[in-house]
Amino acid sequence: MATKMRLQRFGKKGGAYYHIVIADGRAPRDGRFIEKIGTYNPITRPADIQIDFDRALYWVKTGVEPTETVAAILKYTGVAYMHHLLKGVEKGAMNEEQAQVKFEEWKTVKTSKIASAKNDLGLKAKTEDKKRLEAEVKVNQVKAEALAKKLAAEAKKAAGITEEAAEEAAEASEETAEEATEEQA
To answer: What average pLDDT is seen over the chain?
Structure first.
């Protein structure tokens, strides 16, 4: 029996999430499985991965063949690196304490990279929102100025008012346009 570590799809169309399972290679994708060892949600940024590290390491040691995506998840979570270090312990290249120290160093570096990536995503989203809002305010100001000029010209033509009265009407319409842009901001 060829045992595989693979993803089992759940969720709705356009909103899929997956369970990471150990299953017989001949079983259907969403069918019978031996053990569920975690979940994977690719929709969130960064992707949300929950995995039982010890069980995943056990199955990798026993020779389970992961699919491409699951292999990438195992690398991301450190299961593949720990398996590599344990092979070195078996061959006598290092002892278990040294392997554990190397893994902990790798883990701290990885968590700092993930934290900085989350911060970068948050800052990027904020700056994009700010730029979009500034551009929208500029467009609204241009529209308000054009409307004020148009209203002043129409008022001047319709009433045959003197130039002073037309200027007062233009100023009043500009003030209302400025108030409207301030309310939008």
So the answer is: 86
